[in-house]
């Protein structure tokens, strides 16, 4: 357990998934934190923004530089070189706060979702050149309300985006054409994942509902209510982990559509979940600043 952020933890990632050397978190305090799992201590503390950070991703360039990208409420994507410990560029990407990020490693692209009602597809930073929005913007995906969450299918052919008014958008990643849109909830969608076969979309929202939508027919095939509002979703092997606003991880078995167990781990909402299946580690970040 690490007590380090002065405000809510927004996003957690594992930088080296093979050896699980370091964990990165960003928070509402605008800070980036690096932790050593092995030594169980904070190794780096970096102010990235004067405004809250909503999300982060990391990737390796062709020259093996480890780049972290953080989405900020100041409408930017902040690119940080982990090895050299410095901000290398700031992309003025949106007209309003960046709410979520996703990464396609095979396509070498970054997708950012924003309160400006768009998701934008960017060529990832790869060299020492300045990032120019006009040159690295691949596509702009327009929505009817604020984009709150995005995710990519396992084979990286499909992109989903969820909005503040409960709509799910499914996009083709070869053409960025809209496949369908469906009103899955009557309120803000908090998180979405594809199922492990890539045949359906699982979403959760402020209405305490867990929804499953078939990607071929765009119809709802399952729906259940959760005791506390579900905020974040991630797969751990064959189990879906659901972090809620009461500090619980709810473990759900898709096969039998049953809840296996509930683990209480935070005082208040769980904002982010990350897993390492190889090391059997689940990482959580919450509103309780840890």
From TrEMBL:
Pfam families: NBCH_WD40 (PF20426). Keywords: Repeat, WD repeat. The keyword Ribonucleoprotein does not apply. Residues 61-288 form the Neurobeachin beta-propeller domain. This is Protein FAN. The keyword Iron-sulfur does not apply. WD repeats lie at residues 91-123, 140-181. It comes from Apis cerana (Indian honeybee).
